[in-house]
């Protein structure tokens, strides 16, 4: 794969938007009951012409968005890792021959599960929060990625055919 200026630009724009939304809504982006609205962008790799550049941008955005996290330094490791794993899952599901709605449902569930396990591990094992935190994160991510991200997907896929 050749890395073009368009690839780099698109990755950096995605990282910048993800970071800005995370930081602007910081009070609900971190913690046990987090509702990270910027994670609606995790669905972007599902769009055919916005694949690996979205994965890279979301991973960088996950790192930069966690610079203000109260859970540093571990959020600098687990946040980008969660975004990398979740967006890669969505990218891979997007390359299958499944129906569009099935792709959206399957990728939303798997990405939400990946984020819940990775971030949940950080919050429960390292910071001692209750194990129910994993379920809270899964539910919030499912709403954000599946519902809000689904709307983002439907809106943007028209422009990236």
From TrEMBL:
Superkingdom in the source lineage: Archaea
Transmembrane is among the record's keywords: yes
Lineage: Archaea, Thermoproteota, Thermoprotei, Desulfurococcales, Desulfurococcaceae
Keyword line: Membrane, Transmembrane, Transmembrane helix
Chain segments annotated as transmembrane: 12-30, 42-64, 76-94, 101-121, 133-153
Protein name: Putative membrane protein
Keyword Transmembrane: yes
């Amino acid at each position: 794969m050749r890395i073009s200026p368009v690839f780099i630009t698109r990755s950096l724009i995605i990282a910048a938007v993800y970071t800005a939304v995370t930081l602007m809504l910081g009070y609900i982006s971190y913690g046990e009951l987090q509702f990270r609205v910027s994670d609606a962008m995790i669905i972007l790799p599902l769009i055919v012409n916005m694949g690996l550049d979205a994965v890279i941008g979301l991973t960088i955005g996950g790192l930069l968005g966690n610079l203000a996290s109260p859970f540093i330094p571990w959020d600098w490791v687990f946040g980008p890792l969660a975004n990398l794993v979740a967006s890669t899952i969505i990218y891979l599901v997007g390359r299958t021959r499944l129906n569009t709605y099935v792709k959206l449902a399957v990728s939303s569930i798997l990405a939400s599960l990946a984020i819940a396990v990775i971030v949940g591990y950080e919050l429960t094992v390292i910071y001692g929060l209750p194990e129910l935190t994993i379920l809270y994160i899964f539910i919030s991510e499912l709403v954000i990625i599946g519902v809000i991200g689904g709307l983002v997907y439907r809106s943007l896929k028209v422009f990236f055919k």
